[in-house]
Design goal:
Distance between the termini: 63 Å
CATH architecture: 4-Layer Sandwich
Shape: globular
Oligomer: single chain
Strand order of the largest sheet: 1-16-2-3-4-5
Largest sheet: 6 strands, mixed
Number of domains: 1
CATH superfamily: Metallo-dependent phosphatases
Length: 285
């Protein structure tokens, strides 16, 4: 092979790799999980829950037209936002509210704050919270309420990220979440429980409190995903995180971890496309 052909081949490989990387960062995918859940009321068979996590001000097409098209195509019965709807380093509340307003026209929306909301000053977060509520979103702060379908109910609850709001002096993040979860569970102890919580690494706590179904994010899929290995690193989990994306189940507790829609500190992903999650709930026989 001549030197010129070698250079052209190398350039071709580089162009392919760069194109593949660009596609993998800009092409949004919707992943469907069929979840078979013990204790789910019969009326909720086939309920479609769309999870949007770690938006971080991401925009897909003019006015988020591609993201909104994916939301509508998923045909959800319920939409859950599991934190970091904005990015504290470049907060664009208008982007988040424009998306939420149109999402709320598709299905009922629930939201819990993540660690990036926890970094906002009080006045800035107040603007975001007011805008969410004005657009019909139910914002959950360590509380729960019934969600009814066909005459039966489940308990939808949400806990704030442990870096959101005040913590007791010397209290660990796990202790903070445990206290907040106990508060959120009040009134729903006898129902099937659906928890929104930004932190997947707290899965053992969710099992301890016998939550039936958890939606979480925060890990960004491990940012760089390696074949046969999974995610390389995730916030609050470090290298080779255990809970980087997908479905995790122990006994009667299932947790869905979204790889997220946007990015934060690291603007690039590898082998890790931005993701919407569509969970279809089924009664476990």
């Amino acid at each position: 092979m001549t030197k010129r052909k070698k250079i052209l081949l190398a350039l071709g490989i580089l162009a392919f790799f760069l194109g593949w990387m660009a596609w993998g960062n800009l092409d949004l995918e919707t992943t469907q999980y069929d979840l078979y859940l013990s204790g789910l009321p019969r009326s909720f068979e086939g309920l479609r829950v769309l999870q949007i996590s770690d938006l971080h001000n991401a925009v897909y097409g003019k006015k988020n037209v591609r993201l909104l098209a994916a939301i509508r195509q998923a045909d959800p019965d319920l939409i859950v936002f599991t934190g970091d709807i904005v990015d504290s380093r470049n907060t664009r509340i208008d982007l988040a509210l424009n998306l939420v307003e149109q999402a709320a026209a598709v299905a009922p929306c629930y939201y819990v704050p993540g660690n990036h909301e926890g970094r906002l000053d009080e006045a800035e977060y107040a603007v975001l919270e007011k805008g969410l509520i004005q657009r019909g979103v139910i914002s959950l702060h360590n509380e729960g309420l019934p969600f009814t379908c066909g005459g039966e109910s489940i308990w939808v609850m949400g806990v704030e990220d442990p870096r959101f709001g005040e913590r007791e002096e010397g209290e660990t993040e796990t202790a903070t979440l445990r206290r907040r979860m106990d508060r959120a569970l009040e009134g729903g102890e006898e129902l099937f429980t659906l928890l929104l919580s930004h932190r997947p690494e707290q899965f053992p706590l969710y099992q301890e409190r016998k939550v039936h179904l958890v939606f979480s994010g925060h890990a960004h899929g491990g940012q760089f995903r390696l074949p046969l290995v999974g995610g390389l690193a995730a916030p609050d989990q470090g290298l080779f995180p255990e809970y980087d994306g997908g479905v995790y189940k122990e006994e009667t507790t299932a947790m869905v971890v979204s790889r997220g829609v946007g990015n934060s500190i690291i603007p690039l992903r590898f082998n890790n496309r931005p993701q919407l999650v569509l969970a279809v709930l089924h009664v476990q026989s």
